[in-house]
């Protein structure tokens, strides 16, 4: 970080008004003591994520936009790394991302982003940096309500989907035998895998997901006809949550169906791809030929482990 955070904290805590401001910032979703612990320590925050995961992309964009230093840990859900006992003990749902600052662990994507914002405000010592407005938070929540899981799975070729699904179930069973103390959590994960397979047979699931996505994009299209970015003329955390959704549509080769046909979103998409945060978080892995490299690498790992029966 460009400022000496420890020095800033020592100066700030002598000023009661600043301390009260700190408390107001932290009162909702943050623990004041956890922020102070972070500011006093030289340790980086830890972020468990993967380039494939849409929520992980949202948080990484926020980290890059705010210039927050962190230690990155890749956990690939396609190869079942999120099912390893060491990870599963921290988060029995096996879902990404996970953000950790000392003993403070956050799982919810919006909560993580708001935590990052407050850290950025406190560490900068600048009144010019503000946290998200109510409008920005409303957009974040609205975007977060759309679940990309089934929409994505419905657009993956069936032969790959079935193969990976079987592989993941075998990984769950293997981990269950290795860590019997986590058997109940692994049983729940196995049940979830079978439920997912059943839902993919129901075309109404896809229809509802598509309708939800169309409503979201239509509302964004209308807003972008009035403002340059989603919540005004400045780039905000609302844009951070929308960009990965658009990137997912492009990855699935659905750009013409959902983006190009909406001129304001299409223009917006061109702009946001120029941001350094986008190039580092998404473009590095999925732009052009890179998406084939990123996906094939995981596919080969799954194939080799399946052939060797090393789950």
Verbal overview:
With 311 residues, the chain is mainly alpha-helical. It has helices at 5-12, 16-26, 32-40, 54-66, 85-90, 109-124, 134-144, 148-154, 158-178, 183-199, 203-224, 237-251, 255-260, 263-272, 276-286, 290-307; strands at residues 45-49, 70-74, 98-101, 104-106. Strands 2-1-3-4 form a 4-stranded mixed beta sheet.
List the helices and strands and how they pair.
Elements: H1 5-12, H2 16-26, H3 32-40, E1 45-49, H4 54-66, E2 70-74, H5 85-90, E3 98-101, E4 104-106, H6 109-124, H7 134-144, H8 148-154, H9 158-178, H10 183-199, H11 203-224, H12 237-251, H13 255-260, H14 263-272, H15 276-286, H16 290-307
Parallel strand pairs: 1-2
Antiparallel strand pairs: 1-3, 3-4
Helix pairs in contact: 4-6, 4-12, 4-15, 7-12, 8-11, 9-10, 11-14, 15-16
